[in-house]
Specification:
Chain lengths: ~425, ~70
């Protein structure tokens, strides 16, 4: 005869949600969670892979002017008068994030009337699109190259090196914070990424990036190393060390965490949602991930993926709807720790799927006294206790903040490699 | 149902609705949609390319010509 608890767990699984009630975990439940991650990851990979089959690579037609934009090649038509003046510049095809290039038309109009004698220096002769410097520079260089007939000089090495080194420095800080269990270091990484990824470059990992890569629209590493660095750090990081990007490097996460802690400091009450509802709501982010990926696959365009609130927050551009959504996310993050990350973020869902199978994980080791301190310390409720009072870590939800490691009085939780 | 849970469900539902509307808005306002068909065929000459641009309704000033990038 089945244990009554098992029946409840199966009931949950038949309703499509693989999470059992808080405090009732056992081996079977862990296996169901793993199945959930495997099924969702496979579904996403199938959708993503289908892009290769249904959307063949597009080659720029001969006769068009091509520039390497932030999100991939930009095809343009350039008209020049008999006396060598530009009479029109039009974009025929691009893969830029719509909100980032809201001022594209007025930017292109600046080229009208310019000729070979003009130096066409961005920032002096041509004003860049705010928040889209790489794209602005690429278009300007391509036009200049076409007018002069000479190849444009290579981009300055300094900014390119900064795009490679600064993310590596921030990642090193985040890894050091995890290995050394220093919360202050983690905040240093979060603050650094808020400044560099958020305020300076407006570049953070977004769902649009893996989708662009799937549709073959990605920029080359030489033109936009930061695009590849954020993608690599988040995904390789998730496969090796879990959701370290989400936990310590995402600039929008720093905003949400900052707001939440500030409110708590001012004695604002945190929302207490029942654990079952909380766990079920977390499946929303996977549904959003699969839905947006399917939309992009059908349309062959990645515009549907450009709705994350951090784009509006850091670029300062967005429609009324985008601002309303951002406002709601910020308000909810005050009362519910990282509301966007836990329940809705499709990038978080993707890193969760990878982190569930990461090489290094926080795992329970023998010696636990069932004191429950780790569960109380986890800010995202990724730890629950099994029937014997032993901790079980949901590595897909774990943000690798190391607070549980610090909270355990007998070091019964450890960051360990995959057992052989 | 607890009051907190009911409020949470309402706010989460509102968030998902706003997100869905934002996706729909982004798709319909995608600047790429407003662009002409992205297929300027390989031209035999500048004149042929000019003709293509005229057909696609791209701005073209009288007495000017369109110069493809490889010329």
């Amino acid at each position: 005869m089945k244990h009554p608890l098992e029946s409840r767990i199966f009931l949950d699984s038949t309703s499509g949600v693989f999470f059992c009630p808080q405090g009732a975990h056992d081996v079977k439940c862990t296996a169901m969670k793993k199945n959930f991650y495997i099924i969702t990851a496979t579904a996403w990979l199938l959708l993503w892979g289908a892009a290769f089959v249904f959307h063949p690579r597009h080659l720029p037609p001969e006769g068009t002017l091509t520039a390497e934009g932030y999100g991939g090649p930009i095809e343009m038509a350039l008209s020049v008068s008999t006396d060598g003046r530009i009479t029109g510049l039009k974009v025929l095809r691009h893969h830029e994030t719509p909100s980032y290039i809201a001022g594209l038309e007025s930017f292109l109009q600046q080229f009208t009337g310019k000729n070979r004698a003009n130096t066409l220096v961005l920032g002096r002769d041509i004003d860049a699109i705010s928040g889209a410097t790489i794209t602005s520079q690429a278009i300007t260089s391509a036009v200049k190259e076409n007018l002069s007939g000479q190849p444009a000089p290579p981009p300055p090495l300094g900014p390119l090196l900064a795009m490679i080194l600064l993310p590596l420095v921030l990642t090193s800080l985040a890894v050091a914070a995890l290995l050394g269990r220093h919360n202050a270091l983690r905040w240093a990484a979060l603050t650094g990424s808020f400044i560099y990824f958020g305020l300076v470059t407006h570049t953070m990992l977004a769902l649009i990036q893996p989708l662009q890569a799937g549709l073959g629209h990605s920029p080359s590493f030489g033109h936009n190393p930061l695009w590849w660095m954020t993608l690599g750090i988040a995904f390789i990081g998730a496969l090796v060390l879990g959701r370290i990007y989400c936990g310590s490097l995402c600039p929008f996460a720093s905003v949400q965490e900052g707001l939440h802690h500030l409110a708590r400091h001012r004695h604002a009450k945190a929302s207490t949602v029942s654990p079952k509802l909380d766990r079920r709501t977390r499946t929303l982010k996977y549904i959003i991930l699969l839905g947006i990926t399917a939309l992009c696959l059908v349309s062959g365009r990645t515009a549907a993926a450009a709705v994350e609130p951090f784009m509006t927050f850091f670029t300062g551009r967005g429609t009324g709807l985008a601002w309303a959504f951002l406002g709601l996310m910020l308000i909810l993050s005050v009362f519910n720790f990282r509301f966007w990350c836990k329940y809705l973020c499709p990038v978080g869902a993707l890193t969760s799927l990878m982190a569930a199978f990461s090489f290094w994980k926080i795992r329970p080791v023998p010696g636990c006294t069932a004191c429950d301190d780790c569960q109380g310390a986890c800010p995202v409720d990724a730890i629950s206790m099994n029937k014997n009072g032993q901790p079980m870590v949901d590595n897909g939800e774990c943000l690798m903040c190391a607070k549980c490691l610090n909270a355990c009085p007998v070091s019964a939780l450890k960051l360990t490699r995959r057992p052989r | 149902m607890r009051r907190h849970d009911a409020l949470f469900i309402f706010l989460t539902g509102l968030s998902v609705t706003l997100l869905g509307l934002a996706v729909a808005e982004t798709i319909t306002r995608d600047p790429q949609q407003a662009l002409p068909a992205p297929t300027v065929q390989a031209p035999a000459s500048s004149e042929a390319l000019r003709e293509q641009f005229i057909r696609k309704g791209l701005p073209l000033h009288a007495g000017k010509y369109w110069r493809p990038s490889h010329e």
